[in-house]
Write a structure and sequence with these properties.
It comes from Mycolicibacterium rhodesiae (Mycobacterium rhodesiae). The protein is mainly α and 331 residues long. Helices cover 75% and strands 0% of the residues. The chain has a domain at 96-296: Orthogonal Bundle (MetI-like fold).
Length: 331
């Protein structure tokens, strides 16, 4: 695992530079004047020129890109024209809400996906029904899953909330901006439980399609591994089927699943914006929707860069887990 880490970190550098270059290029090609959005369309030519010089937009493009790259590396993502505050400050407030949702959704994805894969691969009673559910679940779009979840668990059963982050008006807002952590630091387990209560339905809807994909890949991988020579040898020496499955087959089957989880994260991040809007959660979805509506390109670029960094870091972690599960990856 330690041999993989330096290579993955080194490989992430050009990816992040290309990401910054893509965002910078889109900013220049976009039909939005950031100066007019900042000082107003009716500003005098002197004010417009002064703002353009202050932002360095009167310099050559290579110099502008270098300044943009160095500023992004130090966390300076510019100022939002909507909130009139630095984009980094806005992200510190909105991003933890989204990361909490992604974290809980990833737990649902792993648990449900592994259960589906193990049950269907072993052919347990009811596995045929689960296979039909897996095929059906893979075709359900996330917005439909959200609407069905709200209809069943809120309208009919009235057991889960569907809006907001918490029902408490005195919920702590710091120091980490992660409500699950801040509520524990403040000694408020009631807020912690209420936050989890509000996370269950949106996280489940977000995790449904990725969990089905994980279950299908794990089932296929397990079926191939269970027919391998080493598993037949394990059975021949008298090991129980459950021990063969967990000890000798599962670890050798998780490689494709881990690779899929890295890809599914990108899908979950994209769907997370829609889920947050449907469930009225104050996360990146709300922030980016306002930015797009007001053509706030600094905020859009900031969210794009942060999501890109999150995706790269997550895939590095996935690679490390793959090397841990299968040492051949390190070679």
């Amino acid at each position: 695992m330690l041999a993989v880490l330096p290579r993955r970190l080194l490989g992430a550098v050009p990816v992040l530079i290309l990401l910054v270059l893509a965002v910078f290029s889109l900013q220049k090609l976009a039909p939005v004047d950031p100066i007019a959005a900042l000082v107003g369309a009716k500003a005098s030519p002197e004010v417009y020129a002064a703002a353009r010089h202050k932002l360095g937009l009167d310099q050559p493009l290579p110099v502008q890109f270098w300044n943009y790259l160095t500023n992004a590396a130090t966390g300076d993502l510019g100022q939002s024209t909507v909130t009139r505050t630095p984009v980094l400050s806005d992200l510190i407030s909105f991003l933890p809400v989204t990361l909490e949702l992604l974290f809980v959704a990833m737990i649902f994805t792993v648990v449900i996906g592994f259960l589906l894969g193990l049950v269907t691969a072993q052919g347990w009673r009811g596995s045929g029904v689960l296979r039909v559910v897996m095929v059906s679940g893979a075709s359900v779009p996330v917005f439909l899953a959200c609407l069905l979840g709200m209809l069943v668990f809120y309208r009919w059963l009235n057991i889960l909330p569907v809006t907001g982050q918490t029902a408490f008006v005195d919920a702590p807002t710091g120091p980490t901006h992660f409500l699950l952590i801040d509520s524990l630091l403040a000694g408020r387990p009631d807020i912690f439980a209420d936050d989890l209560y509000h996370l269950v339905l949106p996280a489940f809807c977000l995790a449904l399609t990725p969990a089905v994909a994980v279950g299908r890949v794990l089932r296929s991988s397990l079926e191939a591994t269970m027919r391998a020579d080493h598993t037949r040898t394990a059975r021949s020496i008298g090991l129980s089927e459950s021990r063969v499955l967990v000890v000798h087959s599962l670890r050798n089957s998780v490689g494709p699943v881990l690779a899929l989880l890295g890809l599914q994260l990108a899908v979950m991040v994209g769907n997370c914006i829609l889920v947050e809007l449907i469930f009225a959660r104050p996360g990146i979805g709300l922030y980016i929707s306002r930015a797009i509506d007001k053509a706030d390109f600094n905020a859009i670029a900031g969210v794009t860069l942060v999501v890109g960094v999150l995706y790269v870091v997550t895939n590095i972690v996935i690679d490390l887990l793959q090397s841990l599960a299968d040492p051949r990856v390190a070679l």
